[in-house]
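During the first year of the project, the team set up a workflow for recording each protein of interest as an amino acid sequence followed immediately by a discrete structure-token representation. This format lets reviewers and collaborators read both layers of information side by side without switching files. As required by the reporting guidelines, we include two representative entries from the current panel. The first entry is reproduced here exactly as it appears in our internal archive.
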Amino acid sequence: MELKRVPLHQLHTRLGAKIVPFAGFEMPVRYSSDIDEHLAVRNAVGIFDVSHMGEFIVKGPKAIDLLQYATSNNVAKLAIGKAQYSCLPNDKGGIVDDILLYRIAENEYFLVVNASNIEKDWRWLNQNNSFGATLENVSDQMCLFAVQGPKAQLTLQKLTPFNLATLPYYTFVANTSLAGVENILISNTGYTGAGGFEIYVPNNQAESIWNAIMEAGQEYDLKPIGLGARDTLRLEKGFCLYGNDIDDTTSPIEAGLGWITSFEKKFINSEELKQQKEKGTSKKLVGFTMIERGIPRSHYQIFNANAEQIGEVTSGSQSPILNCGIGLGYVKMEYAKPDTEIFIGIRENKVKAMVCKTPFV
């Protein structure tokens, strides 16, 4: 399959980014070093081009009926101007995708989906749209920039008349101007836990807006950030990555996403998931910290003290903030409590780790 390119591909190449295949796209994985970029976001501000993500519009009087049926969270609780983290459950107990859902207007919603799942999600929503909602795939029409870090607000406030201080976490403004461009959506969401905003911009204005943000952030030492640091930043906060920590075979209950699974309504496979919540599951996604030296990686096996396999690592890395190995993985329920000693199979060794609560930082 031929890899796609984001509209600012040439700009990232000029900035010296290392480009790698990711989710069907050629994407910048780093510009300098993963650690430098990670610390830039935690301590100051960074900008990510995540234009590979997909965007759908769902509208019409029956939009809410489709979304209530196809998503796990309660869309009825979503006021205009608010965003919601949710997932698309499949009919076998797993997750089609995890999504962000924005309520734009009375009968209009905006879905943000993972790049690798754009076609799959589009098919799934249409397949389940017996309600007559209107669906539009606008993924190829817009770019998405994430400006993240404690200096993100100061950086972006220079470019917009909208008072960003009035935008709490998981809210958005749908039609404001940024860097002289009208009708920009700015949301206070993010995948780093460092604070900041995500900005949806038309493709033909993307480069001018990127350059304006780079200039506005110069005094705060804003840096372009690649997917490498994005992964370690989200891992330190215990955020799930689709394809690693959740997928078509993992349920939201097993993944600790019961809080986005609302049984006040009926949705796809809700009865089975409700039973899981009431009766419990055989495995659970947990966070763990390495006690002994070692870096856990996806698919490494997890053992108990008797060298019996009890699970598998789904995400792992060295934490730049904690300066030790951290990870997420599924383990049997009896090993899921915090402070439980486990062992990670790293090469030929079984390296001691401890189950812990997330976020790590």
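The second entry, processed by the same pipeline in the following quarter, appears below.
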Amino acid sequence: MIELHNIQVIRDRKTILGPLSLTLKQRDFLGVVGPNGAGKSTLLAVIAGITRPTRGQVIRPGDGKNTRNTVGLLFQQHDFHQDMPFTVQDVVYFGRIPRLGLLKRYTKADHRAVDKALSLLAVDHLRNRFYRDLSGGEKQKVQLARLLAQEARILLLDEPTTGLDLDWQDRLTGLIAELHGKTKTTVVMVTHHIEHLPAACRSVLLLREGKCLGQGAPDRIIHAGILSRLYGCSMHVVTHKGRFYAFSEGAR
């Protein structure tokens, strides 16, 4: 679906990502893990077409055709202007605009998709609240509902559990896995925390200072040795029900 060929992103003569090659296929679930400044968000921006690589080539699905339904984005910062009185329902309906187009009326299918998304993320009771008045965690759930309503073929998630309490961090991880399992959606999920990757994650890319330290199946890539290199400290890894948990040796 998407191919990156030897891409590099260079800013102010400093390489912040790459060289990196990557292929995403239909129904892939890629976890991108690394410390701050590793280039994780930049990689998502390149995949989405927001950032053009300085070098290398990106091939996206439907290049030269209508691709507005292809990618759904969730970045860490997604606040709307505080003066705009958008309700939660408004924000979720925005997810349908790529399918509907501007200045057209919503259809029954649009209404069903929005209602389903609000229900799945347990924010239906907030639908008439102003988005600007929500907590950070509530805003994150609403933004995920927007992505679900969009029904995009590729979901790019940048730290989707940010701002959520421990219970909802785990529930959201499960919801992302459920969405991936029930649809043909391709997911790329960025996180600092290995434990936030669901068992549905089929491949992991480890980034440090823009460079790939390793990529492959989680049971091959996620181990104490490479994570110690990734984070610059001695690490310990345990597994539970198909998920991985990493701790610094001093934290055990």
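For the second entry, the following points were noted during internal review. The chain has a mean pLDDT of 88. The first strand starts at residue 2 and ends at 11. Both points are flagged for discussion at the upcoming steering committee meeting.
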